[in-house]
């Protein structure tokens, strides 16, 4: 017998109509996903941990050494929404920078990773360090590689520890 149709024996029985009407409801209820527990931010899992909450935070700074030459770099927060200026100085008269939004990813433990664009490559974290009693998730150091294109377009990736000036 099919739902709501007459059989050879006459009209459909009420139990068949009720059963047909409840089966889709049962299927819909059982198909609802089970919610997972939310991931709690432990260190660097939010944009504000890198750039500040009420106003842009202090810049991160580092020195990149390539081929024996040291180049200062800074990551300066420009907004609390994650816009940063990444400046790579090739000398006093030739600084280069990129302004972009950082990308923050958090693993299942609530520990973040950050990536960003530079003038001539990409940077990303392999480890972030947080500290402070008042702001335990605030990032105070970013460790990871920074890619920089050299002459002829060859990319060089250098491990760089960025430290916050406000540490």
Structure description:
With 167 residues, this protein is mostly beta strands. The chain has two domains: 1-32, no CATH class; 48-164, Porin (Beta Barrel). Helices cover 13% and strands 42% of the residues. The chain has two helices and ten strands, in the order ααββββββββββ. The protein has helices at residues 14-30, 48-51, and strands at 60-66, 69-77, 83-89, 95-101, 103-106, 112-118, 121-124, 127-130, 139-149, 155-164. The strands form two sheets. Strands 4-3-2-1-10-9-8 form a seven-stranded antiparallel sheet. Strand 1 and strand 2 form a beta hairpin. It is elongated. The model is unreliable at 1-7, 14-30 and 151-155 (pLDDT under 50).
| Average residue-wise pLDDT | 74
Low-confidence stretches: 1-7, 14-30, 151-155
Label the overall shape: elongated
Radius of gyration: 28 Å
How does CATH name the architecture of the largest domain?
A: Beta Barrel
Element-by-element helix/strand order: HHEEEEEEEEEE
How many beta-strand segments?
A: 10
Number of domains: 2
Helix content: 10-25%
Structural class assignment: mainly beta
CATH topology of the largest domain: Porin
Distance between the termini: 75 Å
Main sheet strand line-up: 4-3-2-1-10-9-8
Assembly annotation = single chain
- Main β-sheet description: 7 strands, antiparallel
